[in-house]
Every structure is written in C-alpha cells, then in structure tokens.
Amino acid sequence: HAPPPPAAGKELIATELAAARARSLAYTDVEDDLLVRQHSPLMSPLVWDLAHVGNYEELWVLRAAGGITPLRPEIDDIYDAFKHPRKDRPSLPLLGPAEARRYISGVRGRVLDVLDAVDLEDPDPLRAGGFVFGLVVQHEHQHDETMLATLQLSGEPGLIRDGELPPGRAQEAGETRSEDEVFVRPGPFFMGTDALPWAYDNERPSHLVDLPGYWIDRWPVSNGDYLAFIADGGYDDPRWWRPEGWEWVRQKGIHAPLFWTRDGAEGDAGRHIGHRGNGGRRAAGGDGWWRRRFGRMEPVPLDEPVQHVSWYEADAYARWAGKRLPTEAEWEKACGGRRFPWGDADPRPDQANLGHRAARPAPVGAYPAGAGPYGAEQMIGDVWEWTSSWFQPYPGFRSFPYPEYSEVFFGETYRVLRGGSWATHPTAIRTTFRNWDYPIRRQIFAGFRCARAAG
Ligand code: AVJ
Ligand code: FE
C-alpha cells in the first residue's frame, strides 16, 4: 500500500483556500441579475452557492473546529441544503450579491486566524492533518463545479475561459470510433483509502476486493462513438434500455445528449442559434450535429469524450456495444490502487485535464502520460464516468464528520461517478473519490467508458 503523503502544512492550506475562493469569485463576477436568477429548477441561484460556501466554512472551521461564536446564526437555515430543495431556493430571503461577498470574506478572515492558531498534529479528527480545511476547500471546489453546470444550463455566453489542450491520438482518415480495451488481471486490490488525510468518510476504510479478470475501455466513449449509437437507432430500440430508462427517454422525447441539436432542428439548443460560430473546429465534422457550450453553438467534435449523458443513456450505449458499465470497483482497480493512475504525485498538465484549464474535455488519447498500470487513459479529468454501482457504504463505514455528507444518500437511489471532469479541481479528485447522482441527471459533466468480463 502506498505511504501516506505528508499532511498539508499551513502554507499549502492557505494557498488551497485562496485558490478555491479565487474560483468562486471568478464564476460569480457577472451581472447581479445572472446571480440571483434561477436558470433551471435543477440548480440554485448562483448567489445561493456563493453564500453557502461561506456558511459551510463558518459552521465547520469557525464553530466546530475553532469554537468561535456564530457570526450570523440567523442565515444558517437559508443555506442548509437539506431544509430547502434547489427549486425552492430563489424564494428564500437570500443575501444579495454584495452582502454575500462581504459575508464570505468576513468568514474567510477568521478562518485564516483559526489556521494560524491551530495545531495540525492535534489528534482531534477535525484538526488532524488539517482535515477540516480539506473539507471546506473540496466543498468550495465542488460548488464551483456546480456553478459551472448552472452557467452552462443558463445558455449565457461568456465565462467560457477556453484554453489550449493537447491533441488527441492520430486517427485514420474517416475513422470516428475509439474502441480499444485493456485487460485487468484477476486478483485482489485495496479499494478505498485509510491513508489520505483529506479523503471523505465514503472513501474509507480501505478494504480488500477480489475481482475476476475483465476488460475496460482504454478511453472514455467519444462523441463519434456515441453518434454511431444514435445513427443505429439506439434511442428508438427498447432492447438497449432498462425499462425505467426507456420510459424516461420516451416520455421526455430524449434522442441525444443534453445541449445537442441537429442541423435545422429546433431543440433546446436551437433557440441559441444566434450565437452560432464555427469555433475553429468545423473540420472536426459533427455529422450535422451541433452543441451549445456556454452559450455558443459549435459542431460536435467527434474525438472528444461524450458528456451530458445520463446513467440510463450510458447503460443503453454499453448494452448496444455488447458491453456493460464497469462497477466502481473495476473502475478503481484499473487505476492501480494509487492516489492517481500514474502514482501519488499531483497531476501535471500532460497527465490530466482538470481545473477548468479549458471549458471542455480533451480529445480521446490526449494524455498517454496519465495512463494507469493496465494502460487505461483519461481515468482522471475530462468527464465524470458513470459506473454500474449504487452509492453504498464500504464495509466498516463510519460517518464523519456528519451523516448528511454521505450516509443519508446510501441506498439504491444514486449511481456512482468516478474520476472527475475538466471542471474538477485537482485538490477535489483522486482515484478513491466517489461522486453520486440520480440516474436521469445530465447537466453534470458526465460521460462513461465500458467494460466487459474476460473470456
Ligand atoms: C458529492 C457532488 C454529490 O454537490 O450534492 C456539496 C457535494 N455536499 N455540498 C453535491 C456536496 C455538500 C455533493 N456531491
Ligand atoms: Fe454544499
């Protein structure tokens, strides 16, 4: 088993706190109207997320770890995610944008005082190794990714913050598919972790899991791959779908990933046709399909991992392809039982597409240097990957520091996603990290890869 990385020092913690905050402020550096409006009943107004990250910091760092008297106890109720579902949040007496910024910066000042005074060797589990700071840093980054999903749903241009990404693998002329598999030998591996000081309760404890041999795709399923499923009538063939998934696509009239539209069609994305530009990628094709990306229309790039698909769509594609989704154990074992597929060192830009370097996944094959020991690539970053597993506790699970982070979600309601997306910050991802969502959700930056049994 890998040795634990050294516990974070105070300087590193301060840097991480500042990085998360810079991101939250950048994503909310827009007109007030865009912050207070609700863009989708699936999401909070952005100004709720902004004050919520400050309130969470107040609850956990200032009150629970620092023993500081509550600053604004009267707003706790408003920012309690369990008291008010997202769709109801616009009608709450939310702090306005300026007040929210003032509140979170006031909290942050005191958080830095607590950090100055804290003993990181203190055996108290909230303070040991700076756990409570890891908790709030990762929490803020998770809400930052949620804010990006809200901005994508809003259809507003701007904030796209595009950048350069490495090129994908060389393709033969006319080739669009990216099917290639790697073999993972049978045998036991340690799933989860006891060693990473900032890991969540749901990643613990580390436990031995024995798996038969299996094949897993070398890359996430690409848009080109997925278009073959569409072209083959995949959305119109009940053979590929779980009964409840079939009922859902029929009822909602779903025939492509979210934000996709066909030439001439007037789907959801079609309303934004005024923003259409070729994004310099027309040569990449699109097969007559366009997508709306942060308010801009562009041809669907065939070599990018597909994103904005639900678990039901991923599951149907896999069945059509003669495969299945990997279990989360299979997904994790393919990463080799380390913090990252390449080892324990922090991600380099040539190993994974993380942290919103560009506002899109990188093409399939862009990160050979990020391969795991069995050869699987792009396990970390680009798109969250749906697995076949329900979100369930590991044997010996103990809730910490509060049941509403993980425990209340266990059961057969949420499917597990792994690996993080282009929008996930490197501090908030590792091979043991577990994300979860409803199987119908498509606004998250999620795609998938397939697996199949050996033999
Ligand atoms: C782990 C992404 C499912 O956003 O609902 C944020 C993380 N928990 N605030 C979510 C979370 C509390 C959570 N996910
Ligand atoms: Fe939260």
Explain this structure.
It catalyses: gamma-L-glutamyl-L-cysteine + hercynine + O2 = gamma-L-glutamyl-hercynylcysteine S-oxide + H2O. Belongs to the EgtB family. Catalyzes the oxidative sulfurization of hercynine (N-alpha,N-alpha,N-alpha-trimethyl-L-histidine) into hercynyl-gamma-L-glutamyl-L-cysteine sulfoxide, a step in the biosynthesis pathway of ergothioneine. InterPro entries: CTDL_fold, DinB-like, DinB/YfiT-like, EgtB_Actinobacteria, Sulfatase_Mod_Factor_Kinase, SUMF_dom, SUMF_sf. It comes from Microtetraspora fusca. With 455 residues, the protein is of the alpha+beta class. Helix content is 27%, strand content 11%. It contains nine helices and twelve strands. The strands form four sheets. The chain has a four-stranded mixed beta sheet. Helix 1 runs parallel beside helix 5 and helix 3 packs antiparallel against helix 5. The longest helix has 24 residues. The two termini are 30 Å apart. The structure holds N,N,N-trimethyl-histidine and fe (iii) ion (FE).
Summarize this structure briefly.
The protein has 455 residues and is of the alpha+beta class.
Number of helical stretches of at least 4 residues: 9
- On the 0 to 100 scale, the average pLDDT is 92
Helix fraction by DSSP (H/I, runs of at least 4):
25-40%
Largest sheet: 4 strands, mixed
Strand residue content: 5-15%
Radius of gyration from the alpha-carbon trace, in angstroms: 22 Å
Order of helices and strands: HHHHHEEEEHHEEEHHEEEEE
Instruction: Please report the total strand number as a whole number.
Output: 12
Kindly, what is the distance between the CA atoms of the first and last residues, rounded to a whole number of angstroms?
30 Å
The secondary structure category is alpha+beta
